[in-house]
Amino acid sequence: MKKGWNIIVQYQSLIWIVVAWEIIAFMQVMPERLFPSLGKVVVVAIDLISSGMLMENLPTTLFRVFAGFALAAVVGVPLGLLMSRSAKLNDVMQPMFSLGYPIPRVALYPILVFILGLGSASKVSLIFIECLFPIVLNTYYGATRVGKIYLWAGQNMGASSSQIFWRILLPATMPTIFTGLKIALPLAFIIAVLTEMIGSTVGMGYLLSYMSASLMQEKVLACVLLITLVGYLLNLLLQVIQRKYVFWQ
Amino acid sequence: MSTQTPAIDIEKLRKVYTRGKEEVTAIQEISLQIPEGKFVSIVGPSGCGKSTFLHIVGGFIPKSTGTVRIRGKEVDKPGPDRGMMFQESALFPWKNVYDNVAWGLEVQGVEKAKRDEIVEHYLKLVHLWDFRNNLPSELSGGMKQRISLARVLAFNPDVLLMDEPFGALDAQTREKMQVELQRIWQESNKSVMFVTHDIDEAVFLSDIVVVFSGRPAVIKEIIEIDFARPRQLDVHKTQEFMDIRNHIWDLLHQEHSKSGEDEF
To answer: Complex ipTM, two decimals?
Structure first.
C-alpha cells in the first residue's frame, strides 16, 4: 500500500499532465479534432497494435537503433580507452570529438543520403556518428580517472598489456561507459525516428508522418504515445544491463 | 641459491624529476642491501621520497641512474617477483574476494585446481576464507588490507614491498594488523621492504630500520633491531624499545628543522 503510494508520488507530474489534458479536452477549449481526449488516443494506439501497423514498422526502427548504437559502442569504447592510454592517439582524435560535439550532426544526413541512399544504411550511419560522440568522450573521461593503483596492481601480478586493457581498464571504466551509453541510446532512437520522418517507407518515423498526413490528431498522438513507450522501454533495458554489469557501484 | 646474494640489492639509485625547466632531485643516491628473509622498514620525514624509492624498486616509475637487483637479477619493470602492497586497497571492486586473490595466478596461467588450492591456503592464512564471496566494498579497511596481503602472497613473489599498508587504518586496527603481519611474515619467510612514517610501527615490525634524510633523500642511519620474535605488543613498553624509538625520533626531527616549513 505504502509502496503503491510512493510510486504515485514519484510519477505525480505525469498524473497532473494527464488530468490537465483531460480537463482541457472535456471542456473543449480547443476543437476535439485538434485536442482529442487521451482515452481516444489510447484506443487508437491499441488499434495500431492489434491491426499489425506497429509490428510492420517497429522492427525496422529498432534494427536501425540497435545497429547504429551497437556499432558506436563496439568502436567507441575501445577508442575511448585507447585514447586514455596513448597521448599520440589522443592528440589526433581529441580535437575531432571536442570540436564536433557541439555541432548539429543531423546536418550531415543529406550528405549521407546522397552517398548511401534513403534506406537503412544512411540512417544507421547517422545514428552511429551521433552515438559515437557521447560514448567516446565518456569512456575517455572515465578511463583517465581510473586509479593508477589498479593498473599497477595488474602489472605487479604479471598481467600483459592486453590483459590490463581488457580485464582492468575496461571494467574499471564501466560506470562512466554506461553514462555514455545512457546518453547515446535515446539519441539513437531520436535520430532513427527523425530520419524516418524525412524519408522512408517504413519505420516509426514513417508511421508518424503517414499519420500526420491523415490530419487526424488522435492517430498522430497514438503514434507519439507508442514511440514514447518504446523509448522508455529501451532505457529500462539499458538500466537492467547496467545493474548486471556495474553491480559493485 | 647462494646465501650471499641479497634479496634486494640497490646500488647508487638516483631519481631526478623534471618539472618544466626545473630539475628536482628526489633521491640523491641510495645504496642498500636487504638480506634474504629480513624485515626492513624505511622511515623518513614526509615528502622525503621514501614512497618514490619503493615505487622505483617495484618498477612502477623509472629511476634516473643506478641499479635494482632482485636475487641478483636486474629489474626495471614491474613484475611478480616483487609483490607490492599499497596504502589504499588496490583490490578490484568488480571482483569478489576469491577472484581478487586468484587474479594474479589466473593471468600467469596457473591451472584451476592449483589456483583453488593456493587461494584457499592464503585466505585461511589471513583468516578471511569465510568472506571469499564478498565484494571488497563489503569489507572493513583492515580486512581489505589482509585480502591485499593474501593476494600478493598468492603469486609467491621473491620479496614483498609495502607502501604504508596500514596508513589509512585507525590506531587499534593498525596494531592488530602489525601483529598479524608479523605472524604471516614469519610463516611465509619472505624478505620485506616496508615504508612507513610511523616510528613505532617500524621498530615493532623490523629487523632493520633504515632512516632516510629529507629530500633529496640519502640514508641517514641503519639501525638493527633484535627483539626476540614473535614480538608481543607490550615490547613497546620496554626501555630498549623506547630508546630506539627516541633515537629515530631525534634523527627525523633534525631533518624537520633542517628542511623547514615546506614539508608540512
So the answer is: 0.90
